[in-house]
């Protein structure tokens, strides 16, 4: 567990592997540190996270990870229409799609739905 000020290079001198969940919340500097950890020290770094937010905007951490990653493996989801889900939307307590709000809103999975591009733009 770490916060936005965590320095991966300084705090992990003897680590043999780094696994990051919710990697979209990493800062650009943290992604660079992880990249350096992998490239210079040879430490495997595995990150999981969303590419974009509920408005289709990229997260900073995700954008830098996509730019610097040696390998990218996509975990596939299915939209309610049956197509491959590539986007996500946020819904309110009544299940209605939200089209505004803060980029980061920590909530349960019930607040977010995976959708295909067509459903993302048609809702």
UniProtKB/TrEMBL annotation:
Entry superkingdom: Bacteria
Entry keyword annotation includes Transmembrane helix: no
E.C. numbers: 2.7.1.21
Reaction(s) the record says it catalyses: thymidine + ATP = dTMP + ADP + H(+)
Gene Ontology CC: cytosol
Keywords recorded for this protein, A-Z: ATP-binding, DNA synthesis, Kinase, Nucleotide-binding, Transferase
Class of enzymatic activity (EC top level): transferase
GO biological process: DNA biosynthetic process; thymidine metabolic process
A Pfam match: TK
GO terms assigned for molecular function: ATP binding; thymidine kinase activity
PANTHER family: THYMIDINE KINASE, THYMIDINE KINASE, CYTOSOLIC
Family indicated by similarity: Belongs to the thymidine kinase family.
Name of protein: Thymidine kinase
Organism from which the protein derives: Undibacterium pigrum
Lineage: Bacteria, Pseudomonadati, Pseudomonadota, Betaproteobacteria, Burkholderiales
